[in-house]
Each structure stands twice: as structure tokens, then as C-alpha cells.
């Protein structure tokens, strides 16, 4: 997953997103400094370097507007949310793709998407083929819906802590699953939203 952003990094990142959508080109370092009230061009450059190191942008050396927003092709007010894949027991460090979502639906720039495996969590609003939006920074509370990697699958469950173990509930009458320190699992984060891809259009019958 991507590293968390500071307040000023998030402000600059959102400005880059909106400026590109409105003007079809990136702002200069001085433009960024004026808009975000950053006193020096060196400080702006340092923020851009941090955004690049955290995986939000790529920079092209020697160009004042040489910033590429990773995964972004959309209008103002949206942001690219990376789709991560569970592989060999860990979520991949690099996204496999991005979905451009309305920024008001994404609680944090660190959020990412995971494809839901199976229909066991229908009572939580998540079906196979949906994308679970994971908020990795928020702390989960008992009984809250979370996204958990169990072996090589990502599942949506409500979670209760029981000492060093966690108990996962899927609903739908399914038996709860208890996992302890010896089990291969990882709580990826709180379930922030479920994104359901549109159903494919039915073929037309022109007969």
C-alpha cells in the first residue's frame, strides 16, 4: 500500500489532480507554491520528491512541469485509487490498475481497492466481483467491517478481538472464523466503501 501523506502533501496532490483536469497540463513549481502558500521553490520540490517516493507521482528531470500523476485520467474532483492484488500471501506493492473515483467518496489518499473474493459477505453489502475500498490508516473497532487477507484471499468481515486472536463474522448464517498469531492473516484496514462495477450491457435483439 502507499505511504500516508502529510497535510501539505495531500494539498499539493489534490491541486495537481485538479489543475491537470482543468488545464490538461501540470502547474509549474512556482504555481504550486503560490496556490498552496509554500514559501520557497525548494520546499515545493521537496514535497514533489516525497510524493514521488510514496508512489503518487513520477517526475521527469529537467522539466518544470514534468510531473505525471500515476493512474489519473479524469475530470476535476476525482482521484485515482489503486487496485491492489493479493499474491503469495501479501498484497502487491504496486497497483495492477486504478479506478478514478469522486474524491468525496474516498476518505483518505492512502485508500486502495481489493477485489472481493466469494459471496460470503453479501450481508455486509459485498459480492464477488465488487471492489472493497480499504482505509488502511483508520483504526478498526470491534464489530466494524474490515478487509482481511487470509492466506491468499481478501475477505470482507466484521471483526471482534479476543485476546491475541481475532474472530471474523461473515453473516449469512456462516460459522465465524477465529484466527490467532500462528495463522497467516493480515488486517488490511477498515472497509470504507464497496464499489460495484456496472453490469455488462445485454446484447440487442434486432429480430
Description:
The protein has helices spanning 7-23, 29-36, 41-53; strands spanning 57-59, 67-69, 78-84, 86-87, 90-91, 97-102, 112-115, 131-135, 145-150, 153-162, 165-169, 177-179, 185-195. It is of the alpha+beta class. The protein folds into two domains: 7-69, Winged helix-like DNA-binding domain superfamily/Winged helix DNA-binding domain (Arc Repressor Mutant, subunit A), CATH 1.10.10; 99-195, Umud Fragment, subunit A, CATH 2.10.109. It has a nine-stranded mixed sheet. Helix 1 packs across helix 3 (41-53).
Helix/strand layout:
Blueprint: H1 7-23, H2 29-36, H3 41-53, E1 57-59, E2 67-69, E3 78-84, E4 86-87, E5 90-91, E6 97-102, E7 112-115, E8 131-135, E9 145-150, E10 153-162, E11 165-169, E12 177-179, E13 185-195
Parallel strand pairs: 3-7
Antiparallel strand pairs: 1-2, 3-6, 4-5, 7-8, 8-13, 9-10, 9-13, 10-11, 11-12
